[in-house]
């Protein structure tokens, strides 16, 4: 039997392969980034990492874009066949309409929301609602709220109206700049201009551009690592790689335990005009497991805002 992920059968990271296919099809990091809802730098970083893993270049860098070279064209051709097989297999699994207990719920949300806000509170859910069983599907890919393969509810960042389902407000989406308490000279920073001189960590929300448009020079160049996931941006900040601009609710626990500190003052938080919402495909029936879980979520949100 073949052993995947060993030296005899290495598998590159799936995100890298998806970035490769999109870049080859669209001809640029920028276009691929727009389709994947990532930063251009994040896509470029994934392609460079993949080329480093494979030990060869996959693209010719041209003045007007990118074009797969001979190796890249053959690799992408086979990759598309493989991704098609994976997509079909996944569709078959997701379209199985398996029966579930009425107290079981599937919640779709982002990895950052699951690990930074929800999981630290789950022990209180078990105490107050011991019969509820919550399966957390943590992914930046939204699952459907209708039809086969649906989830019972989702918690997503955005602003109404939402195309799918009924929305209930949960938490504001204010973003705050944070860094490691060991980052050099962070105590001396007084104004937004001071941040223009340090590495700025980006995620897929592109909040730094909005922040400098609100508080500093809109033309400030964002220098620093870029990540497709907010969780990775937070971890990079905790490791001292720079300053991350992330939803305040994701940073609160890290600030309390001392692994992060807030940069500048509260007056420099960014109101993103969005927030975190609970989405369901149908109106929630009073007394149902979904109703109990939503009431608990909103109660936890009120406690967090005190």
From TrEMBL:
This is LysR family transcriptional regulator. One of its GO terms (molecular function) is DNA binding. SUPFAM superfamilies: Periplasmic binding protein-like II (SSF53850), Winged helix' DNA-binding domain (SSF46785). Residues 12-69 form the HTH lysR-type domain. Gene3D superfamilies: Periplasmic binding protein-like II (3.40.190.10), Winged helix-like DNA-binding domain superfamily/Winged helix DNA-binding domain (1.10.10.10). Belongs to the LysR transcriptional regulatory family. CDD domains: PBP2_GcdR_TrpI_HvrB_AmpR_like. It holds the Pfam family HTH_1. Keywords: DNA-binding, Transcription, Transcription regulation.
